[in-house]
Structure formats: C-alpha cells, structure tokens
C-alpha cells in the first residue's frame, strides 16, 4: 500500500508539471481526453509565467484531491485537471489566471453529470441492480468541480464582475437542488470539502446579489438558504437569519410574501418585511434561550427597532422579561421595559419601574432614567412636582459638565413648569411658574444654539400661550427653517399663531403650503385647521367642503391600512379621535346654519365611533339650544360633564343655559364659570359670560363686570381659531 501511494504521488507530481507546461502526460494510466490535459491554451496565452514555481509550491491538498479521484476512477479527466490548476492559481493570488482556467470548464456538461451522480448516491441500495450503470462521476470529482465553480465566482467577485459571480455561484445551488429536490439527507456528504463548499456558496450568493444591486434576487437567495435543507450548521444558519433580518429592516426594499412549498395548516406566513424580520429575530432569540447559539446583543437591538416600528412594544416587553437572568443588567432591563410600557400608553407602569430603579441605593448616575421619569411625570398632572425634582437632580449632577444633557434637562424642566402653572389657582404663583418655564426653555435653547427643534417648538408654544405672539412667531419661523417644513405640528403651530394675530389669509396660505409638502395620510390635522380658519372668515360652505374631504381621506386611510399593514395603536386612536371631532365640528356648522337634519346625521356618525364622548354631548346640547329646547340642552351638557367633569366648553354652555332659564341660580352659574377659568384662564367666552353675570347681579359688581369684559376683549383679540395645545 505504501509503495502504491508513493507511486501515485509521483504520477501526480509529474502530471501537475505537465498541466503547467501544457505537455502531454505519458504514464501507464493515460488520461482519456481528446484535448490532452486541461491547460494547453492556458499556458499558450501567457498566463503561466509562474509555472516554474508551481513545481516547487504545489499544494498538498491538491495532490490529495487528485489521488482520491485517481483511486476512485482510475483517471483524472479534462475538467478535473482544470479545477485543480485553477485552485492552485487562485491560492497563489493569480485571480485572472485562475478565472481563465475555470472558464475552460464546460459547466453545462459537468453539471448534468454531477446531478446524476448526486441523485444516484441518494437512492437506497435496494433500488439499484447489477444492470444499473455506474455514476458518471465520483463524489470526489463532484466536490472538486463544485469547488471550482465556487472559486470561479470568487474570482469574478475579486475582479468586480458581481452579476456574473452571482450567476456562477447560483449554478452550485441549482445543481444540488435539482439533484436532491427534498434536500440533503442526513449524513449524505461524507466529503467534508463538499459540505464546506455548499456552506460558503449559500452564504456568498446573497452578498453577490447585494453588490449587483438586485433586491429581489437578494431576498430570494436568503429565503432559499433558509428554506432548503442544506445541512448547514447552527452558527451558519443563525448568521444567515440575522443578515436577512437586517436586510429586510433597513434595505428599503419591499419583499413579496414568501411562497412556501409546503406548510402546515394554520402556520404563520409573514405578509411584509417587518413581519418576516421579526419572525427571524424571534427564531434567533429562541435559539439563544435553548442555548443553541451564543448571545448576540445586536439581535435584541434589531428586534427592539422592528417591534417599535410595528407598534408591538408589549411584545417587546414580554421578550425582554423572558430573557434568562444575567443577560441584561437590571438597570438596562428596567429602562427598556419602562420605554416599552410608556410607548404603549401605560405611563404609570413605566413610572413605577423607574421609581423602583431610582430608589435603589446601588444605582448611581441613572441620568437617562431620571430624564425619562421626568418626561413621564410631565404628562401626568398628579406627578408634576415629582418630575421637576428629577430634572433638578440631573441639573445638579451635570452642572458645568455635559451641555447636551443639561439642555435636555432644562427643556423637560420648562415643560413641567409650564404644565404646573396651568394647575395653580393663585395668579402670583402661576405667573412665577410661567416665568421659570420660559427661562428654562430659553436656557436650553442657548445651550443648543437654536439647533434643537423640540426646544424651539416648546419655546414658541409657551410664548404663544402667554400671548407673546411676536416672540412666538419668531421661534415658530426658526423651527420651520430648521426642519425645512418636515413637521406637521410646526406648520399647525405657525398657522395658529397667525390666526391669533387675525392674519387669517396668511394662516390659510401656510396650511396650503403644508398640504403641498405633506403626505395624504398626515394631512388630517392640517385640513381641520384649514376648516377652522374658513369658519373664522365666515366661509361656512368652504369649511363644509374641507370637512367632507377630510372625512373621505380618513375613511380611505382606514380601509387601505386595514389590508396593508398594522399601524401603531396610538396612530389608530388618533385617527378615530380626529374623525369623531370632525363630525362634531361639522354638526356645529350645520347647527349654525339651522340645518338640523344634517347636524343630527353627523352626531349619529360620531356616536357610532364613540357613544361616550363629552364633545358629542356638547354638540348635541348646542343643537337643542339652537332649536330653543333649553331643558334638553341642559341635560346634554350635564351628560357631557358626567363623561368629563373638566370639559370646559360644557361648563361654559351649562352656565349660559342655567342663566337663561333660571335667574335664581346665579351662584351655581358663577361656580361653573369659575371652574372653567380655573381650567382655562385664557378662554374669552368664560370671561365674557362671567362679566354678564356680574353685570346682571346685585350688590354693586359693576367694577368686576368691567374687568371681566376687559379681559375677554383682550383675550379675544389674541385668541387662535383652535387652542395652541
């Protein structure tokens, strides 16, 4: 056996010299080929300038491959010889020479033979008979030629011919899939080199299509890698799953739903990029939990992004909660869960998580958590003081240090102080808080040099609410310039400020410009503001047309999103609220035009959306009042206050009706009006009706009445068509 091995090795070395020099091989076992050996044209074309080195630097693995082929078939044919020589040149870095050699292989001819050989190997032994012809190729030859096709793809890639490289790589997968439609059976490949080549080809193909800018081919190649049974190891498959999920999330290409060959009844089939990416990432997370793969923190990062965009923050929270202990630090886990619950509108759950974290003595430098807790507190009237305490703690820690962090803290402080000022009854304390709020926001603006749009928005909003309209207009314009008109709320704030200055034409022009710059699905609030501006100018018919168009847009939007993809829960709720309020606005317009039937139809449409709505009961009360049915109107206003005791329009309307039908109830009327002013001190209607009450009363209240009328006149002069907030 030893002598035979030495003899075979000697023949191989002689043969390799012959391949490089282009001479014929004359040994006892002559290679049967009409063109002699593989590379006669290769040496003739001048690519074998380093042929002399090949004799001394022949790779041992190449000789072992050739020995295997010789032992199995007794000869090394034309294509196999080219495959060996091409590999040699590729290993030496001669990419162009290697490609020239590989191009001499008749791919169509060898793939048909490889398919037959691979297919026969997969058949059970009992199905073969003595009469069956032997396979045209040994598995070693199949392995050698598949590797040659793979190296050809790598050579084309190195030369920048990416599409050709992808097509070459695709030949490998097509060949194997055609030969074995049901996938590679367990322990089918005894040759580790063949499995290694398949693994590399499966991984390489999507990357080549990426370089070729072929989005659909990329998606198909990834799905092919995951759906066909390639006998990939767990780590390789996990890597492909992760790369595919990343491509689906960030490529910007819409993938068509996968067409599965077979699937069990009731199984989940993703309908779009987001669902497919989430499915892949959840599979990866499951593999980690089962300890099949090592932990990769980026999996959770991508899953967080995907579920956040899909509006499934509750699902993300559950995934974080189910992670094994020790994967995430307690602080990171608490803050992640708090953000999830906050995003889903469960503010108190999020705040309690942060409180537990911040009250722990071992947790220091929790700046992000303090700011998040402050933001949540700023949205709850009962927690405003607590939120102010959190921001002041951040400011004390970062005094003179991180300007960015201090600017964020000052912005949140200004927002919280502004919200607190609206809850204070005392005029002196309210004015003090408003002044502190402006100071904090201006400090944040100076620190960011006016480059933070959120700070500019709140600075403009706060000045507008304090009726400093010129300053508010300046900051609103700065905001528009900074954002280049990309924010709907910036357009609306600018229009409201202009309407407060009674510049209705300019405000309408701003809204029209915003409509031109905004997508149809984001035009709802803009159209409603436009209708309010038209009403303020007495253009009621135009307002009705605008409201009708808005309702049509919302209807189409709800249907189209229903079949396309799931939206954020908050977006759905906002659209339903907008639709309901639009019906109420339209009912009020019809009421003012004495079109009772049309107003009633609008209110029935609103009732179908939400039967328990304070604004619907208020519009119903206005309709009854316009008809002269004061008692029915009063009942409707009372029902509105049952739904929302702080509904300011209903408080004012209740006071008006009570004053009209019962002069003996003046103290009750005054209580409703003072409650309305406690909730909204800038409401001119409340001040005006309180003035009327004092004027009609006894006891020398003429001075109080005059002060109320003066306040109402001043506020009416600067009242926007709809509240700034």
Automatic annotation (TrEMBL):
A Pfam family found in this protein is TPR_8
* Keyword RNA-binding applies: no
S-adenosyl-L-methionine found in the keyword field? no
Keyword annotations from UniProtKB, A to Z: TPR repeat
- The TPR repeat boundaries are 614-647
PANTHER family according to UniProt: OS10G0471400 PROTEIN, PROTEIN NPG1
What is this protein called in UniProt? Answer: No pollen germination related 2
Native species of this protein? Answer: Actinidia rufa
